[in-house]
Structures are given as C-alpha cells and as structure tokens.
Amino acid sequence: MNAGTPLPCVALLSEVLDLGYLANAFRKEFPGIDLRMGNDVASLGPVEDVDVAVCWFPPHGLLAQLPKLALIQSLAAGIDHIAADADLPRDLPLCRIVDTTMAAGMKAYVSWAVVQQHRGMAAYVASSAAGRWEEQPVVSPRHHRVGIAGLGTLGMACAEALATIGYQVRGWSRSAKTDLPEGVQSFHGDDQLGDFLGGCDTLVCLLPLTAQTHGFLNASLFAQLPRGAHLINVGRGDHLVEADLLAALQSGQLSGATLDAFSVEPLPADHAFWREPRILITPHISTRTDPAVIAQQTLSNLAALRQGERPRNLVDMARGY
Amino acid sequence: MNAGTPLPCVALLSEVLDLGYLANAFRKEFPGIDLRMGNDVASLGPVEDVDVAVCWFPPHGLLAQLPKLALIQSLAAGIDHIAADADLPRDLPLCRIVDTTMAAGMKAYVSWAVVQQHRGMAAYVASSAAGRWEEQPVVSPRHHRVGIAGLGTLGMACAEALATIGYQVRGWSRSAKTDLPEGVQSFHGDDQLGDFLGGCDTLVCLLPLTAQTHGFLNASLFAQLPRGAHLINVGRGDHLVEADLLAALQSGQLSGATLDAFSVEPLPADHAFWREPRILITPHISTRTDPAVIAQQTLSNLAALRQGERPRNLVDMARGY
After folding, report:
1. ipTM of the complex
2. How high does pLDDT run on average in chain B?
3. Which residues of chain B does A111 touch, with a Cβ-Cβ cutoff of 8 Å?
C-alpha cells in the first residue's frame, strides 16, 4: 500500500474457525485497519464499509449482503467452501492463496505420511515405547511407487519432494503438464487414469474439489489400484466416498488410509473412521497459510483490482479453481 | 566379470548379523560362486582360497588369517567396525558402499524423523487412536532450522531432501564443501562449529566414526544448541556420550532424541534409553544397502584391483573414511 492510500475495511468470515489469529496478523501488518468479524450482518457493523471478505467456510448468504464488496479472498488454496454458497455474488473476483510456506507444510506432511506407512514407522514407535528391539523389513523408496492425483502448485511441490527423497513418483492431472519435476512420470485425462492408478503403491489426492472431482476416491478407483495400496487424502473430504473406503479396507484392496480432510469437520465422535485402526486421522493440519501472507496478499490483490490489474491466483469460476 | 574369468572365493563375515540374505544375493548375481561363511578359520574351509571378505562387524583377528586376501569390502557406508580390529591387515585395500538406493533409504528416514518431531506427529497418531480431534500448533518448515553434521554422500543427500521439503538447512563438515545443494548454508571446521550449532533446532549426525568424531555428541556440544533442540543420530552409537544425552534431556537443554545407532546393538533390554520417553529408538534400520549392489560392487572392485585400477569408495585409512 502506498503511503496515503486509506486502508480498506476487511471482513473475516468463517463458520468453523476462530479467525482471531488472522485478525492479529492483519493488525500487525496494517496497524489501524478496520476489521469486521461475525456471522451475520448485524454483528459485522455497517456493511457498506466492507471492501473485501477473507473467507474460510463463510456463512452462506452473507457475502451477497455486502453492497460494496470488491474482492472475495480465500485464506487457503481451495475455494469450494465459498463456491458452495448458492447466493455467492459470482461476478466478483475470487482469489485463493498458494505460497511457498504453505507448500512447505504440505510437502512435510505428505513426505511424513508416505514414509510412515511405506517404512512401517508406527511399529517402530510402538516397539520403542514397549522396550523392544524389533526390525521391520527395509524396502528402499526406489522400490515404492507414489502417485499424486492433482498437479497444481501443491501437487507439483509434493511430487518434487518425494522424487528427491528417492521414491518412484508419477503424477496425474486433468490436462497435460509439461513442467514436471525431473524423474516424475506424467499422466493426464480420463484415458490415462487407469494406467496411472495401476502403478500407485501409495496414492496421494491433491485435486481441487469441483463438480468433476466430487467423489473421485470411490470403489471403482480403488479397484484400479494395486491390491494393498495406501490412500493419502490431503484434498477435501468430499473427494472421498466414505463407505467405499471402509469396504476397500475390509476387503484388503486398500491396506490403509491417511486422511486429513473430511466432509464434516471436526469429524464427529461417533464416525466409523475413528474405529478403523487402518485409518490414520489428522485434524486438517497438513498445512497452514502464513497469516502474514494472507494479510499482505489480500491488500495487494485489492490494490491490483483498483488499478485495473489482475490479482494473484484469481479463480476461473467455470473451471472451479 | 568377463566370460571365462573364474569367479572369486568370497567370505561373508559378521558377528552380529545373519548374512544368509547376502549369500542369496551373491548366488543370484553370480551362480556357482564359492561362498564361505563362519566366525573362525575352521568353519571357513580352506582359507587360502579366499580372495575377498565382505564384512559387517567381522570377528577380530580373522581377516589376518586369510593369506590370499586381496580386498576387504564393507557392506555399508561405515568401516569403523572393520578398523576396530587390532590385527587388521592395514596394507590391504578396504572399500565401503554408498549407492543411490542406500541414500534414498536414509533420506526417507531422516525426512520422516525431522517432520515427526517438528510437527508433533506422534500426538496426532495418539489422538487418532483415541478418537480425539486435537490440533497441534502448525509451524511451517520455513521456520525450522535443521543442521546436518557430516556432508558425505548421505549427509549431502539428506540436506537436499530437507531443503526441497522447505526446511532451513545448514551443513557442517570437517573441510570446506563447494557443492552443497541450493539453499543449504555451509559451515566447516572447528572454528565454525559453534555458529553452526547455534542455529540447529534439529541436529542430524551423519558423520563417519573416526578417532576425531568418537564422542562428538557430548554435553559441550549440546550446550551450544538452542535450548529445546532435537537430536537425530543416524551415524554410529559411539558418536554419542550416552550419559550426556540423558542429562541434557533431564535439564531441558534437549527436548528429545531419535536414535538409530547404538554402541551395543541390539540395545540391551535394561538400558536407560528404553525408559526415557523423550528418546525414540529404532533398531538400526534407517537404511540398508541393496544386497545385489553389494555383490556387484564386491566383484567389480576385485576386478578393478586385479587390473591395476582404483576400486570404488576406497577408504583412506589415515583419514578413516
């Protein structure tokens, strides 16, 4: 922001998260900024002030009630939680955030999850606690094939990290990609999905959630994986048909799953996933956007729009990401 | 081996491991090869036949009793277990093995161990098993500093993998290195050790074990790390002064340790490390050499020597690695 440019009024909207940490980051980056938080018009104060809404599962219908809104900013890589609002003002620019800090968190989580199951690290942790010296078979990453479904910024980053470790990495995306990291085998489109899946000892889902990818992880897909494959879902809960996963684990078609995203979060206490020991549940923590980056990108995107420039990571609503 | 070259006689020597898996690999790679296994001259058969000894903690004194021995081959990256033999025929060529399969295993283990403690993954695994949705603070790898002590093939490989994930990586070695992976900060020699240690939230030991590095991980070194640092030892057990580690954990100077190598293996059942919950013990499984690679390198090294050429990974006995 140039000196003298008035700071915008920013609404922070979430039905599922306490965004106090984000308010602190905005205040630190932009002292004196007018911040509004709340789940309805009454609690936001005068809504005609609001220039930009920063959203994570915003209350549906609320964005349409902000008359001067110029930008809708997701605080993360996905925008499905905003697109699901039937009253969404679809003519407004909608941006998402993907930065290197966020990619690093995802690379760390996915690398950990792949090694955790491929090398049987849970058994070592248990043996250590029990005072037992017990070797598991040691299989080199060179002999283990990891497939990444979804080759956006995060999928590409994970493919590169896993290839650097030494895994046999393959990637699948909707359209052909030319800039894959060295050593990563490329597949694309419906025609090549079967070939891709047939060589995935571990499958990592990092697709965007769109109408096309809703329910992507289903019985038909699991049947095309090698028997005993492991699933890692760091996409969205709605990529997964939950009953199909439980059936594939029961039959042995899948040996296990590591899930970080769920259709309902927090995952309800009585959900069947909690009672399936072959599922490792993590509470949507694979990565986080740096709150300072959210604050900076929100204001720089709004400034770009006001100067007639294209903001960063502008979403193509027809494509869905 | 050229067709017509007679296969050598190979002794497989270990006091601590059953090398049957390695015998199988030699027979598969070189059908009909003369293999000898045993811990004394009597069980090896006619010792004047033995051309090469492949060793992992060989019985001390035995190598000196093999009159036609032309090559001593360690089956892994370290040779300390051979150099410790007071009767070692020190004029014989001694080789070690470092290959990409082995490096991949080490990269996987070290990446896992760094993320496991940095991201608090053990708590998530416990929460999942207990049916609890419990977030831990999410700190990006960009804000965590990992130091690698020892920049040989394995140290360099781990530095590259951790930098690709997004950690702040620094490396320390005896002598200056010029070929560090992009983004890795370089330190060397005694003069720069303190600066190196002061910026290690996690310290990974991948040094060779020599007279100079014996007891490297001691109270004085721990005191130079940031308070609450984590230690990962994938070098040798004798790098570590065990009592100093226990004291550093008690005082809080170290928050935890991940140990894969021990002075006595298997770690005795009554060892204090088993009762310290801040120590994760793994049974020397960080990586393995591919047995087919051991068989191939052993015979190609012997062939190189017989043709007056330098074998691969020949050890400089004065330097100790």
Report:
1. 0.90
2. 95
3. 111-112, 115, 165
